[in-house]
Amino acid sequence: MPRFLGRERTGRLGPVSAESPPAAVAHPLGDPQFRWFFAGRLVSMTGSSMVWVALTFAILEASDRTSDLSIVVASYTVPLALFQIFGGAAADRFSRSAVLVGSHLGSAVTQGISAVLLLTGHYQLVVLAGLAALNGTMQALSGPALIGIVPDLVDRGLIQRANALLGATRNATRIVGPALAGLIVAGAGGGWAVAVDAVCYLLAAACLGGLRLPAPVRAAGASMLRDLREGWGAFRSRTWVWVGSSSFAVINFVQAGVWGVLGPVLAEDTIGAAAWGLVLSGTAAGFLVSSVIMYRVTFTRLLGVGQAFLVLGALPLVLLGLGVPTPVLVAGAFLGGAGTGVYGIAYETSFQEHIPGEALSRVASIDTTASLVTVPLGQLAVIPVAAAFGDSQVAVVGGVAFALVAAGMLAVRPIRTLRHGE
């Protein structure tokens, strides 16, 4: 949300008079409100990065059926995708801090009950799948609020740095969290790791409860359906948003199928599971480095630069298909992660600077839904396609398609020329 509207400066709780300007801060963590939010996200993301490792082993320990794991994962993923739009409407209608506190408390409850079931030996697939669905719903409600709240917490000039800090935290927890979960699973069992995740959500809710943000001003009698229509209007009226979302639907289709499903298959037949772990670590390291760079460096045409860097995301797919040595693939994964990370921060920052604050979460939820709906399609389609044309060939063609779509988005003038900070 723009921090300057017209000629009047706006503060977090309304207009600020010229006689009493708010104290400026040089970096996001200098603001107490952002510190509460940052602490909450750090704790929450640490728990989230642990939970799927924990659940995987806990479910396999309890049932010894891989089909159970698939059902639980699907039970989480489907509502996560379906309810994003309603999460966006809620975040623009109510206080975003209240939405985040409520969703984190809900996740703490669902994960806590799951942990109790697993630890006491009362495993029931139907109950665990239902809890996973509730947790997915909570995450769908919180996602749009997380994007919309950043401009409420920091001044406009600090939005990119705030996103870079949050990105660094997210990527660091992706590296540390699974390893920590593995230690807990090995030492105490998967149920205890799920319990730790529940505690993390509870602590995050306590931190987010320290935020003091007002509810947005809504028109009297405005319905949720009207809110959704207005959000759709704001989405489709901005070419750089709907073109970016549509293009990323194609990229996610390719990425989910080739890297997420075909990658481990190719790795098992060539470099092995341990080397594939190194490749994934290279990707995570690239994401982390991109966050550090984007905290220090900015660009006038931020979105266009981010779009150019996104082309690097195709590199590991092509290298995977070409069967290059492991060190080369790790290096390619690092560059791909770095390029995608730069794009992610550039896109989020552009969103928060150029979408009106009162519609920001709704537009973000539509964007997320549209770009993620192709993920399960890519996961399902890649196996029969690879069986028909060959694993390596599909990986190379998928990487080329990724690069062409990412580069082609630069032909769209609003993407290429959108200016940072305006």
TrEMBL record:
Domain of life: Bacteria
Main location as per UniProt: membrane
Region spans: Disordered: 1-22
Transmembrane portions of the chain: 42-63, 69-91, 175-195, 240-262, 274-295, 302-322, 328-347, 368-389, 395-412
Compositional bias per record (Basic and acidic residues), positions renumbered to this chain: 1-11
Coiled-coil spans in chain: none
UniProtKB keywords: Cell membrane, Membrane, Transmembrane, Transmembrane helix
Cross-referenced InterPro entries: MFS, MFS_trans_sf
Pfam families reported for this sequence: MFS_1 (PF07690)
Annotated localization: Cell membrane
Membrane topology: Multi-pass membrane protein
Protein name: MFS transporter
Phylogenetic placement of the source organism: Bacteria, Bacillati, Actinomycetota, Actinomycetes, Geodermatophilales
